[in-house]
Amino acid sequence: MVSGSLPLPPLLTGRYLARLAQDRADLARAQALRFRSFLQRRGLAEGPGLDADAFDPLCGHVLLEERASGRLVGCYRLLPIAAGASLRHSYAGQAYDLSALDAYGGAKLKLGRFCLDPECHAPDILRLAWAAMTRIVDAGGVKLLFGCSSFDGADPGRHQAALGLLRNHTSPAQWAPRPQAAEIHRYSDASEPPTLTRAAITGLPPLLRSYLAMGGWVSDHAVIDRSLDTLHVFTAVEIDRIPPARARALRAVATHAH
């Protein structure tokens, strides 16, 4: 793991603590929570088990814990990518041709495997997750935060209203991810114009809503992943383009955590 390269001392807010995984036992706890969130919850596997892949040893892993009990209530992993380095070897680079983004100036950070304990719904957990992320982004001088946002269910027909909204948030042409996966769905395939409805908004994954609220953009197509029964969308936030009010709010949360 590359935890030591991520600038994050333990961070406290309310009942919860954010810290970096320190050893294999910490990583195994994150992998077990991911298994429950991504595989067991969708009926794709029976537990207990671990969700693990070849990218885990390359990443730093942020753990969100209940302070009193030590219970793991959330986690995500981060892969720092130096300015000018290729994104081809990241998890997202397996599903999208990201060669245009190789020329993006400044440090980049790949966010992945973001999940919360399905039994825990305290808003402080998500706030702490973004506070930790803000600390890491600012301390590391990160210019681009990117990852894949996942919809439950691989059938695009289940997500038409939400996918239609994404036509208004596609990437600048110069950074556009190009198709690479075997099965994709282009938002432009829908005949209806995008409509801002409650169903469309609530149909967006919470992580994707957060990205878009920060001025983020998405690929012009989604990738159909039948092995995980998910539809995922490449998503990126250019840090310098986050709306000022939103940036102040994020940094306020990060500052008040201690």
Secondary-structure blueprint:
Elements (H helix, E strand, L loop, with lengths): L10 E3 L2 E5 L3 H17 L19 E7 L5 E10 L14 E2 L9 E10 L6 H18 L1 E11 L7 H6 L12 E2 L4 E3 L11 H5 L3 H8 L3 E9 L4 E9 L5 H13 L2
Summarize the structure.
This protein has 258 residues and is of the alpha+beta class.
Number of DSSP helical runs: 6
Uncertain spans, ≥5 residues at pLDDT below 50?
none
Quick one: CATH superfamily?
Gcn5-related N-acetyltransferase (GNAT)
Q: Beta-strand level of the residues, as a percent range?
A: 25-35%
**Sequence of secondary-structure elements:** EEHEEEEHEHEEHHEEH
CATH topology: Aminopeptidase
Average residue pLDDT: 90
Strand order of the largest sheet: 1-2-3-4-6-7-11-10-9
Kindly state the number of beta strands. 11
- CATH architecture heading: 3-Layer(aba) Sandwich
Largest sheet report: 9 strands, mixed
Describe this entry's structure for a reader:
The chain has 258 residues and is an alpha+beta fold. It has one domain (3-256): Aminopeptidase (3-Layer(aba) Sandwich). The protein is built from six helices and eleven strands. The protein has helices at residues 24-40, 123-140, 160-165, 198-202, 206-213, 244-256, and strands at residues 11-13, 16-20, 60-66, 72-81, 96-97, 107-116, 142-152, 178-179, 184-186, 217-225, 230-238. Strands 1-2-3-4-6-7-11-10-9 form a nine-stranded mixed beta sheet, sandwiched between helices. Helix 2 (123-140) packs across helix 6. The mean pLDDT is 90.
